Amino acid sequence: MPFYSDELIEEIRSRNDIVDVISGYVRLTKKGSTYFGLCPFHNEKTPSFSVSPNKQMYYCFGCGAGGNVITFIMQYENYTFYEALELLASRVGIDLPKKEMSPQQKQEADKRARILEINKVAAKYFYMLLRSDQGKHAKNYFVKRELSEETMKKFGLGYSNKYSDDLYRYLRKAGYDDNILKESGLVSIDEKRGGYDKFWNRAMFPIMDANNRVIGFGGRVMGEGEPKYLNSPETAVFDKSRNLYGLNLARLSKKPQILLCEGYMDVIALHQAGFDNAVASLGTAFTAGHANLLKRYTKDVYLTFDSDGAGVRAALRALPILKDAGLSAKVINMAPHKDPDEFIKALGPEAFQQRIDEAENSFMFEIRILQRDYNLRDPESKTSFFKEVAKRILSFPEELERENYIEAVASKYHVGFEQLRSMVKHHGTRGAYTPQKEKTPLKSGIQKDKKKVDGMKQSQQLLLTWLIEDTRLFKAVEPYIGPDDFTEPIYRDVARMLFDQYYNNELNPARIISCFSEEEQQKEIAALFNARLKSVDGKAEREKALNETIVRVKQASLDYRREHLDPTDMVGLQQIINDQKQLDRMGKLHISID
User: Fold this and answer.
1) Could you give the C-alpha distances from 451 to 23, 269, 400, 489, 530, in angstroms and in order?
2) pLDDT surpassing 70 at residue 194
3) Contact yes or no for 56/18 (Cβ under 8 A)
4) Spatial distance between the Cα atoms of 421 and 399, rounded to a whole number of angstroms
């Protein structure tokens, strides 16, 4: 790794026992030599998330998330490798040396620092303009929205001048060149127009990250113009899918839940009314990245989306994303008003708190919206509605949970409990219902619909798993299989490291994962060390499976070498012929585990 030596990385990893670390996030139960719990990276009812103290690795047999303790912190906290390393170092009292960056990394870090600096300067300029004569109409807009001076200051609200190159000229005078200004997302530059502002004649909303750094802006046009709201483009410091408006303030709230809104003004109005736990997505659809960010600060999310059709659709999209992230979600009913801002102006904070207290269970909300498609006065339509409800109740795997929802639906829609229960059981015998929803990325970035591993890859995975689980197999395998017999490049790299560790008497699969910086690679290596074979009982069956696996791996190696052999390579050809003869003899060979 470019910042820290391999030895230091390994010391940090080895001093953070993976069971101790993960048990701080996931409730684990020991079964044999392995711990199991519910996977934090996808929604499940039956534990498939395993943590091995011997391997110092975790692996989910459901979604494929896996790695070592550093990988876990990266995936769970949405941290970079270096952020995860710093957290783990701090946990065990290791002082990290000052980072030494490569020229490219230093250039990238400098660029980020310069953009953050420019954003801060721009935010102060916009703030000043709002309080000048030029910003009167924007100030009046905020006053008409009933925002106090204190609230405007708290959120750093501002105004971008009506001249389309005003900020550009101001920043140029401050010493920033065109290249970095273009990278900031605040300025566009072309040959015809020169430099001109992204935002002009707009009420400005600085967007801050959780550490109170200005990372971007939102702007509402003053007067006529499109679009009504405009957001900064994505930059080196601004990722819309991993930041939420108002989170820098909401994360400090003492309230037990977070209120998820649609717009900036809703967040500001709620904070002004005393609801300092409100946040909003940044002009984009709610994503898995947003859900994972929220999970750092709460277990409960209450949706305060607009009560119109678009708001309802947005809520229906967000609910399964929150559920997949392991968050509990409820929906606040804003009727008869459109949004939190309107609601509080009309009815006040006490009434809104009552709506929070009465927030609707997410499943019951989905059923209520579903009911709009049916006429409950018509017997046929009413029957179809309850059939669909019965199918959806089957999505809950536990019987007690199903019973509770049957009772809740029966009570709300005045249908007999036993009748609905019978309908659920009837549909259950015809196959469980899986609700159709948009596929959303899991927190770990791994998808539930994993690609089926082909037979040859599976054999190579099994062999690597067996080698780390029973080191006696190295001696049995060594005469026939070496690292170069693994045909997948990443498998071959891992096998070389594993054999080297074995020869040096320091088998350590978790350390191998640290040699790869990409999360996808770490996941794939974790899978290599956690391959599963259908149950084999007894020594004889295990030895038979081992022999068959060695033969398959060797045959695949020979086929691969033949396919990639240079026709003029006579030495290589002779080696393949000799290895094929050895393989033919291996068909009659019995390799013992002892």
Assistant:
1) 29, 46, 33, 18, 16
2) yes
3) yes
4) 11
pLDDT-derived band at 581 (thresholds 50, 70, 90) equals: confident
Residue-wise pLDDT for 417-466, tens only, equals: 999 999 988 887 765 444 444 443 444 444 444 444 467 788 888 888 88
CA dihedral 22, 28, 32, 34 (to 10 degrees): -20
What does the alpha-carbon distance between residue 244 and residue 279 come to, in Å, rounded to a whole number? Answer: 6
Nearby residues of 330 by Cβ (< 8 Å), 6 or more positions away:
300, 301, 302, 303, 359, 360, 361, 362, 365
The answer to whether the CB of 232 falls within 8 A of the CB of 269 is no
**Sorting pLDDT into bands at 50, 70 and 90, what band is 364?**
very high
Neighbours of 45 (CB within 10 A): 10
Average pLDDT over residues 103-116: 88
User: CA torsion sign, 550 to 555 to 558 to 563?
Assistant: negative
The three-state secondary structure class of 49 is strand
Can you tell me the distance from the alpha carbon of 153 to that of 115, in angstroms, rounded to the nearest whole number?
23
Report how far apart, in Å, the C-alpha atoms of 295 and of each of 130, 257, 386, 579 are. Answer: 35, 11, 34, 54
Report the pLDDT averaged over residues 9-34: 91
Nearest CA-CA partner of 197 in 184, 206, 215: 184
At 326 the pLDDT is 82
Beta bridge partners of 217: 206
**What is the CA angle 124-128-130, rounded to 5?**
120
Task: Look up the pTM and report it.
Answer: 0.63
C-alpha 482: how far from its chain's center? 37
Task: Place 339 in a pLDDT band, splitting at 50, 70 and 90.
Answer: very high
Nearest to 13 by CA among 60, 48, 56: 56
Query: Which residue ranges form the domains of the chain, and what is each CATH number?
Result: 6-91 (3.90.580.10), 104-238 (3.90.980.10), 247-365 (3.40.1360.10), 373-428 (no CATH), 455-586 (1.10.860)
Q: What percent of the chain has pLDDT over 70?
A: 91
What pLDDT score does 594 carry?
59
Q: Are 366 and 319 in contact (CB under 8 A)?
A: yes
Closest CA to 159 of 126, 121, 124: 126
Edge-first strand order for the sheet with 214-221 is: 158-160, 202-208, 214-221, 229-231
Strand 300-303 with 258-261, pairing: parallel
Q: What is the dihedral of CA 431, 437, 443, 444, to 10 degrees?
A: 60
User: Would you state the structure tokens that stand for residue 433, as one six-digit string?
Assistant: 């219902």
Query: Which pLDDT does position 588 carry in this prediction?
Result: 60
Q: Tokens 């550009």 appear where?
A: 168
State both tokens at 158.
């501002």
Q: Do the Cβ atoms of 459 and 556 come closer than 8 Å?
A: yes
**Per the omega criterion (within 30 degrees of 0), is the bond before 227 cis?**
yes
Q: CA nearest 334: which of 228, 259, 400, 258?
A: 259
Contact in structure between 339 and 306 (CB atoms under 8 Å): yes
Position 590 scores a pLDDT of 62
The mean of the pLDDT values for the chain is 86
Predicted confidence at residue 204, as pLDDT, reads 98
- The HSE-up count of residue 422 (CA atoms within 13 Å, CB side) is 5
pLDDT value of residue 432: 47
